[in-house]
Amino acid sequence: MERKKFIQKLGIGVVTPILTTSFMSCDKGDDIENMTPNTCSPSPSETAGPFPIKSPTERVRENIIGNRAGIPLVINFTIQNSNNNCNPLEGVFVDIWQCDSKGNYSEYSDQLDGNFTNEHFLRGRQTTDAKGQVTFTSIYPGWYPGRAPHLHLEIKRGNASLLVTQVAFPENVSKIVYATSNYKGDFDTANTNDGEFRDSLSQNLADSVTGDTANGYTLKKVITVAG
């Protein structure tokens, strides 16, 4: 789907000071091993959007930044199995994709800043370890009209999709990041007004986002699938 048509469907016709921010949706420890779920129900299913990853088998990598500029973001996911008492799910693929600091997606044309068909930034695949965990090195995503800041991900066992979902960001952190030079200012859509998140925000919201604009942030999120 072309970006302009997608946005229409949504109804949308210098030196930076060091700012430290911490957001946690519940009382969890700082280590990825200590990430614990609030529930054993599957995480909400969300759309893949108009710009899904095209060839994930060619994007197996931890560092997905490519040539994009932005505030560093380490992404830690723990995948657990609702069919097995929410025990860690080992050996499944986690595919991730996101926009850059200006709201552009790679692999597609008709983006806000042009054609990125032949680029593959900010897309990747990792396989969960024995603890159900994967890590990606990225940048804090920007935003585009009609959507709150977000990450896309899909969990797959082989070629079978277990879940397509999205992760929302705490607005207080996003406001600080978007005041820095590589970003285009404050987002136009709140989490509670977002078409994907308004009915399931508590489940979509990152479990924690900690760090600062000088050293980058770390996002942690437990994702539950029926594996």
Structural class: mainly beta
* Structure summary, number of beta strands: 10
Largest β sheet strand count, sense and barrel closure: 6 strands, mixed
CATH homologous superfamily placement: Aromatic compound dioxygenase
Helix share, percent? under 10%
**Element string (H = helix, E = strand):** HEEEEEEEEHHEE
Q: Compute the gyration radius: what is it?
A: 17 Å
Name of the CATH architecture: Sandwich
Shape: globular
When the domains are counted, the total is: 1
> For the terminal residues, how far apart are their CA atoms?
30 Å
CATH topology: Protocatechuate 3,4-Dioxygenase, subunit A
Q: What is the tally of helical segments? A: 3
| Broad CATH class | Mainly Beta
Strand content: 25-35%
Mean pLDDT: 89
Show unreliable segments. 4-18, 25-37
Structure write-up:
With 227 residues, the protein is mainly beta. It has a single domain, classed as Aromatic compound dioxygenase (Protocatechuate 3,4-Dioxygenase, subunit A, Sandwich), CATH 2.60.130.10. The protein is 8% helix and 29% strand. Strands 1, 2, 3, 6, 9 and 10 form a 6-stranded mixed sheet that branches. Strands 5-4-7-8 form a 4-stranded antiparallel sheet, with no helix packed on it. A hairpin with a 5-residue loop joins strand 2 and strand 3 (87-88). The longest helix is centred in the first third of the chain and has 7 residues, at 3-9. It is globular. The relative contact order is 0.26. Residues 4-18 and 25-37 have low confidence and may be disordered. InterPro entries: Intradiol_dOase_C, Intradiol_dOase_core. Pfam families: Dioxygenase_C. It comes from Flagellimonas pacifica. GO terms for molecular function: ferric iron binding; oxidoreductase activity, acting on single donors with incorporation of molecular oxygen, incorporation of two atoms of oxygen. This is Protocatechuate 3,4-dioxygenase beta subunit.
